[in-house]
Design a protein that fits this description.
Chain lengths: ~110, ~120
């Protein structure tokens, strides 16, 4: 069974707005990662947050992690049309073993 | 060079064919992965090689046979596939060793269609 569930499944916003997507997972983790995938191509790593961190920033991205609730959120600020993609969280369930969440399909309208 | 290169980009094969997918990285990574992704679904882990040894096989059918000839190359040999095996096959690599769970770099994938 999948480790991570993401919501919303799909999100449509206007350019310039913020986009928030959430990931919930089931078991204890060492870290959680977020990836972006453009239209059925390879995944691009966005950010890694360790279990002892609560928040991390990278450019327009802000990730939070709440291990007590087993959840994480990804915030993209001032979104652009180029941010249109699917976003996946991935949690480590063992050495070298990452399980991806169900994903959020983001559409940013120009 | 932070690139993982997969060939071919597209592959159409019959159910009796034998074909291979190839993956190459020159980042010195010691862990390499095969994932399978169906449309609108997340990637599913198939195999992991660590230091050229198979360390994870997620109960993948034997018609998929991985091979790691050296630390830079990863192959996936395909034989007697079924139409439901049609999917995007993604290769990835990561540092490995003590930093076993770090960011993974993905190739662009091979779009496989089984007819």
């Amino acid at each position: 069974s999948q480790q991570g569930e993401e919501d919303p499944q799909a999100l449509s916003i206007q350019e310039g707005e913020n986009a928030t997507m959430n990931c919930s997972y089931k078991t204890s983790i060492n870290n959680l990662q977020w990836y972006r995938q453009n239209s059925g191509r390879g995944l691009v790593h966005l950010i890694l947050i360790r279990s002892n961190e609560r928040e991390k920033h990278s450019g327009r991205l802000r990730v939070t992690l709440d291990t007590s609730k087993k959840s994480s959120s990804l915030l993209i600020t001032a979104s652009r049309a180029a941010d249109t993609a699917s976003y996946f969280c991935a949690t480590d369930v063992g050495t070298y073993k990452y399980i991806f969440g169900t994903g959020t399909r983001l559409k940013v309208l120009a | 060079d932070t690139e993982v290169t997969q060939t071919p980009k597209h592959l159409v094969m019959g159910m009796t064919n034998k074909k291979s997918l190839k993956c190459e990285q020159h980042m010195g990574h010691r862990a390499m992965y095969w994932y399978k992704q169906k449309a609108k679904k997340p990637p599913e882990l198939m195999f992991v090689y660590s230091y050229e040894k198979l360390s994870i096989n997620e109960s993948v059918p034997s018609r998929f046979s991985p091979e790691c000839p050296n630390s830079s190359l990863l192959n996936l040999h395909l034989h007697a596939l079924q139409p439901e095996d049609s999917a995007l096959y993604l290769c990835a690599s990561s540092q490995g060793g003590r930093r076993s769970n770090t960011e993974a770099f993905f190739g662009q994938g091979t779009r496989l269609t089984v007819v």
